[in-house]
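Standup notes, structure subgroup. Blocker cleared on the PBG input:
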Amino acid sequence: MTLTLPSPASPLKIGTRGSPLALAQAYETRSRLAAAFDLPLEAFEIVVIKTTGDNQALIAADKPLKELGGKGLFTKEIEEDLLSGAIDIAVHSMKDMPVAQPEGLALDTYLPREDVRDAFISPALTSLHELAEGAVVGTSSLRRRAQLLNRRPDLNVVEFRGNVQTRLRKLSEGVADCTFLAMAGLNRLAMADVPANPIETGDMLPAVAQGAIGIERRADDGRAAEMLAAIHDGETGLRLAAERAFLAALDGSCETPIAGLAELHGSTLRLRGEVLRPDGSESISDDQTCPVEDGAELGREMAAKLLEKAGKGFFDWKS
Ligand SMILES: NCc1[nH]cc(CCC(=O)O)c1CC(=O)O
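Run returned:
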């Protein structure tokens, strides 16, 4: 098959949200594609798409994101633009992507994964272990909140949202002693001046797919499929297959505290998974290995095992 490559006259349209992190990820995708096919950057057009999530997050800046409404809050408009042909590919943080895509779309290309760890961010402290009794921690992530309270029931968790600058300002105002972000985002934005220290995965298991960029396309677009295959990272693909199968079998949404991480050691895949009660009162976890090609199966098995241990109502909020 001969591929009609994009050109400055007929560029490949790359859709993305407009946040600094989303743009950095779109630029990375563009440079990898340009390098793989020896094309000028002008053969690609970055199309910024405003999503319902972006609008609502601006309007209701203090509300927990989970109260702003349903699945696909940050992806609906982008996927509509893919299906209509307004864009050709879309770049996403895989951590924010539902486990299944709408009919007609495929999401199976991943760039090499960044640091998977969470970052501990504090102007005064360098690690979780330095937090004093009763310290105030700021996060809007249900997973991080539940994990923190599970290990440290004495901590006070306050709702914390916004970009890095907003969070740093809140910290300097004394609103909280620390906050958390993904190392991946900080690294991609080259935010060297942020007081961030990585948290080892044994202390805080990351979200499924944290640090991974995924690229979505129309399932029947042969050109996009072939171009994306050239920049796909197979190792990230194997790891996400295990993690996303785990998440899918748990029926996880962004409203359930779930953590999962797959790592490759030669031909062996190690999968760690954790589910927590939203209030942090209970954590159930597992740590297993399998041959690399069996990761998805292990993910499903681990999910079934954890769900059985958890029992009904485990994810319900206690009032
Ligand atoms: N939910 C927001 C989100 N989605 C992806 C990242 C960071 C980058 C990544 O994990 O790929 C973040 C912010 C954060 O958790 O700090």
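Discussed briefly. Residues 20-37 form the longest helix (18 residues).
Next: hand off to the docking folks.
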